[in-house]
Specification:
Blueprint (H helix, E strand, L loop, with lengths): L9 E5 L4 H11 L3 E6 L15 E5 L5 H13 L2 E4 L5 H4 L4 H7 L4 E6 L14 H6 L20 H26 L3 E6 H8 L1 H6 L22 E4 L5 E4 L4 H10 L4 H4 L8 H12 L4 H7 L7 E3 L10 H6 L2 E4 L2 E4 L24 H7 L7
Parallel strand pairs: 1-2, 1-4, 2-3, 4-5, 5-6
Antiparallel strand pairs: 7-8, 8-9, 10-11
Helix pairs in contact: 1-6, 2-4, 6-7
Length: 366
């Protein structure tokens, strides 16, 4: 069991893919004890990083005994996490009505893309489809090209998993006052729409546009994009504030008159050309060193393999290595009850879960 702020919180996870397993990883990193209920001995997407911090038990949820064990585990748990299509848990006899009848203090977390209701709730989908409906995807990608999904970070993990975890923590806090559990309907479309709040707030004034070709924060502004360097690698540039922009131009030895107004999209092509020319004169690492003591908001674009060895990342211990695998450390950092990247007690289906449930007082037939 973990030592973080959620130490003592028991979580039953119904195995799946997408944002729900990542949300459970975050809960485990903060000290929650997690038992995953697997329905198959084969894990189609084995991931020792995302699956860390669990034990697992194999159950046939269509059998009377499997449902009995699952309901007994639910009765002993604080939190349930499932990421199935709406109605699946109800058909298994494990929906919110049955679960809360057994455990009125249960926090029942439901993770979907479209949500528990609405015309699309029963349709299949993935991150790219969910962020497409929120306006987020339309704002991402090159000006002269199609919208490009930013991996599945914005939808599945930003708008999905993180909002589910926030809902779980909020519900646990509220339970301290009411003594009652509740159901969390966490939908990727809801969370991603929420993530777009900044841009909705600026939509009328036009201060921060989401129109590709005119985006201040989307790679169109010459002061918020990446530039290729002499070695074919890239450097990131992001001085939003005018005084930081001035420092950038000074370090690049560029005359402000040469680049024009950095705030006027009509002058951006000139600034792009000037900065591209200068950045191509040195390697990525040479530029990183040149800006190391600067507030011009410049940083090298690192690969996943390079990131753990960067001096800042290594100093903070942002990553850990276990059995040859790189694990991101627990985040965020708490001063008194810090979490830690949960050890992978047993990420393989069926390992360790029966013993964990026995500690919870749940009888499991062998």
């Amino acid at each position: 069991m973990g030592q973080g702020p959620l130490s003592g919180v028991r979580v039953v996870e119904f195995a799946g893919i997408g944002p729900a397993p990542f949300a459970v990883m975050l809960l485990a990193d903060m000290g929650a004890e997690v038992v995953r209920i697997d329905r198959s001995p084969a894990d189609p997407f084995p991931n020792p990083v995302v699956n860390r911090g669990r034990t697992s038990i194999l159950l046939d949820l269509k059998s009377e005994e499997g449902r009995r064990v699952a309901l007994d585990a639910i009765a002993a748990a604080d939190v349930l996490i499932e990421g199935y299509r709406p109605g699946v848990m109800e058909r298994l006899g494990l929906g919110p009505d049955e679960a809360l009848a057994r455990n009125p203090r249960l926090i029942y977390g439901r993770m979907t893309g479209w949500g528990q209701d609405g015309p699309l709730s029963q349709r299949a989908g993935h991150d790219i489809n969910y962020i497409a409906l929120t306006g987020a995807l339309d704002a991402i990608g090159p000006a002269e090209g199609p919208p490009m999904p930013p991996l599945n970070l914005v939808g599945d993990y930003g708008g999905g998993a993180l909002y589910l975890v926030m809902g779980v923590c909020a519900a646990l806090y509220e339970r301290e006052r009411s003594g009652k559990g509740q159901v969390i309907d966490a939908a990727v479309v809801d969370g991603t729409a929420s993530l777009m709040a900044l841009f909705h707030g600026f939509a009328k004034g036009g201060l921060i546009s989401t129109e590709r070709g005119r985006r201040a924060l989307g790679g169109d502004a010459p002061w918020y994009r990446t530039y290729e360097c002499a070695d074919g690698r890239f450097i990131s540039v992001g001085p939003v504030e005018p005084h930081f922009q001035a420092e950038l131009l000074q370090r690049l030895e560029l005359d402000p008159a040469e680049v024009g107004s950095l705030l006027d999209p009509r002058d951006w092509p000139r600034a792009h050309a000037a900065m591209e020319r200068v950045f191509l004169t040195r390697t990525r690492d040479a530029w990183a060193q040149a800006f190391a003591d600067s507030d011009a908001c410049v940083a090298p674009v690192l690969t996943m393999a390079e990131a753990p060895t960067h001096a800042h990342m290594a100093s903070r211990g942002v990553y850990e290595e276990r059995d040859g695998e790189v694990h991101p450390a627990a985040a965020p950092r708490l001063s008194r009850t810090p979490g830690r990247a949960a050890p992978t007690e047993a990420s393989a289906p069926g390992e360790g879960g029966a013993a964990a449930l026995a500690r919870w007082g749940v009888r499991v037939s062998q």
